């Protein structure tokens, strides 16, 4: 996959960056670290400029997240009730929990969307519950754009700073992502063991 990403960036330039960042947010296995990191390397070598790289990369990220948001808006959280009623134990949720999450997202969800832009595991999928909770379009787009811009700037800086040795970054991002997944797995098992449905 890495060779395909590099080839597309070399052939498509800024448009290739934007397209890949859109795909990265629709199909999370594509790593934004690699895409924007390569862009940073290109800046260091004088083959790209920072401003258009950031613009195309950030717009691509935002559009990819917006697709998940629109899917959530189209579904609506009320359609989840039969699913939650049936599989509540495995979700460690009952419908009262869902209702509380929706209220929380409607009030404070923009900050969750912003912060989760820095999470390798949740930066894409957080857009779906934002849509399910019917967060406002403008609010979602503004905070997604802001979070994506900050995250992309960090990656571009890392690529520029490390140059051709960008692979060193993977020594840190890989273990952090694995540790995060392991922690989520442990917390999930703990919640299943401890979870009891509320009385109606």
Task: Describe the protein.
- Helices cover 78% and strands 0% of the residues.
- The protein has eight helices and no strands.
- It has helices spanning 2-26, 32-44, 50-75, 81-91, 95-116, 127-132, 137-162, 167-194.
- The protein is elongated, with a radius of gyration of 19 Å.
- The chain has 200 residues and is an all-alpha fold.
- The model has no long low-confidence stretch (mean pLDDT 78).
- The longest helix is centred in the last third of the chain and has 28 residues, at 167-194.
- The chain has one domain (2-194).
How is the topology of this model organized?
Layout: H1 2-26, H2 32-44, H3 50-75, H4 81-91, H5 95-116, H6 127-132, H7 137-162, H8 167-194
Helix pairs in contact: 1-2, 1-3, 2-7, 3-7, 5-7
């Amino acid at each position: 996959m890495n060779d395909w990403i590099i080839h597309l960036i070399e052939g498509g330039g800024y448009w290739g960056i934007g397209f890949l960042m859109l795909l990265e947010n629709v199909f999370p296995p594509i790593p934004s670290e690699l895409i924007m990191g390569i862009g940073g390397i290109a800046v260091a070598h004088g083959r790209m400029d920072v401003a258009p790289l950031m613009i195309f990369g950030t717009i691509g990220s935002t559009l990819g997240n917006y697709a998940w948001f629109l899917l959530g808006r189209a579904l609506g959280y009320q359609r989840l009730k039969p699913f939650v009623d049936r599989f509540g134990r495995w979700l460690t949720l009952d419908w009262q929990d869902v209702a509380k999450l929706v209220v929380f997202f409607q009030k404070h969800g923009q900050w969750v969307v912003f912060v989760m832009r820095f999470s390798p595991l949740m930066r894409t999928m957080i857009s779906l519950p934002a849509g399910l909770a019917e967060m406002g379009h403008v609010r979602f787009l503004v905070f997604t754009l802001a979070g994506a811009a900050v995250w992309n700037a960090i990656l571009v800086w890392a690529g520029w700073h490390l140059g051709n040795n960008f692979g060193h970054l993977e020594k840190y991002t890989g273990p952090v992502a694995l540790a995060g997944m392991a922690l989520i797995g442990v917390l999930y098992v703990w919640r299943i063991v401890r979870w009891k449905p509320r009385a109606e």
